[in-house]
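User: Fold this, then the next.

Assistant: Folding the first:
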Amino acid sequence: MARPQKEGVDYFPLDVTMDTNVQLLEAQFGVKAFAVFVKLLQYIYGSHGYYGEWSEDIGMLFSRSIGEDRTLVSDIVQAAIRRGLFDASMFKKHHILTSRGIQKRYFEMTKRRQGLEIKKEYLLIHGVLKKVNANNNGVNVNNNSKNARNNTQSKVNKIKVNNNKSAYADAADADTQKREILIDALAEADTQSVMALVNDQEGEP
């Protein structure tokens, strides 16, 4: 059974100087806001890579996993959405956490990865599908090369079969000629026997 295609990544870049909105988030909730925000980025990049699903249940499990109060985590998430750290329209429509920056970094990190499955409705940046399709075409090229090898092998096998058929046909023709010669010889022998018998009968009184 084939291993499922990995979506997330094992690491992501973190700026030394954080965005002003991150600083405002920290100013509002304290240093815990920074820690929660980084943990959210780890969750997003580690799951689907360019987005992370978010619901009340997911928020509850996330809060428990990092050992923080779920109300605080929920408030930080909502504040991050209001400040544009996560896209508000995507959260409202699809219940996901993502942003242009997250997607840009993710697709830059996975630009050499083939076989990515992208949900078009989740995209916030342009040109991603074209790049993904270009990578997937690389797979198709490899497949075409494989098909070309298979076609070549098929032609070789076909030639061998045709050659074998020709050999069988030649052998059959040779056998036919032998049989015709044998029949002619037998016919000639029978004719001679009959003529001898007639001559003998004509010589009798």
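Now the next one, as you asked:
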Amino acid sequence: MMGQAQRRSPVYLRDNAPALGTGPARLWGRLDIGPGPWQPGPMSRHIIQEASAAPDGRKTAPAALRNTGPLIEALRARLPATGRVLELASGTGQHAAAFAAAFPALEWLPSDVDPGQRSSITAWRQDCGLANLAAPLAIDIAEPWPVAPGTAQAVLAINLLHLIPEPFLTPLFGEARQALGDGGKLLIYGPFLRGSSYASEGDQSFDAALRARDPAIGYKSVEAVTGAAQAAGFTPLASDAMPANNLLLSFAAPQ
């Protein structure tokens, strides 16, 4: 259960720790409950980063340490065997490094809108030395993506959708469809509403804190996400239950 949000007080995440972000960047930790709504930029988010940093610039976030293992196991059944995976809002880069190691036959292409996060991703890339982990791209999901059409076999978004306004689902799915080749996979992980219901009291409390900070963001229903995906031409494939009430939603682009 989250503590009550107060002016300028940090709200610490519960056990499933859905990531908070600067734009689509996932900055795990605490939400700065400052006065007034978020204003500048289509995707800007005022978040205090809470992640330890190594001398070489690698940031380490507790939430990523917890969910990396379960995500790898779930992704084994959902990712293509070969090709390029574009990861949106890669945050600290811990996931990118771990996923590139777990799936050596895939080229892993991380991205983030925040320069500080991209620096951390670069540090993780240099530390692991994996040839299949590419340099991070600067991607704002609300703007055209710097990705050649049809060059990705999968697009992955982790703990992103509850941090963006619902109208931004349209450009997200549209750009993902353009980036993917025929039959490519779109994989989305995070907390969701089931219809209008929360999976737990903790989910309800966390969503309330998000919406108190910015009424435009918050949990999306599985049905709304699926509808936006279908409107962009995707076909629903699976909904995998994950720890702490999270889901991994899988969609396929047309063949």
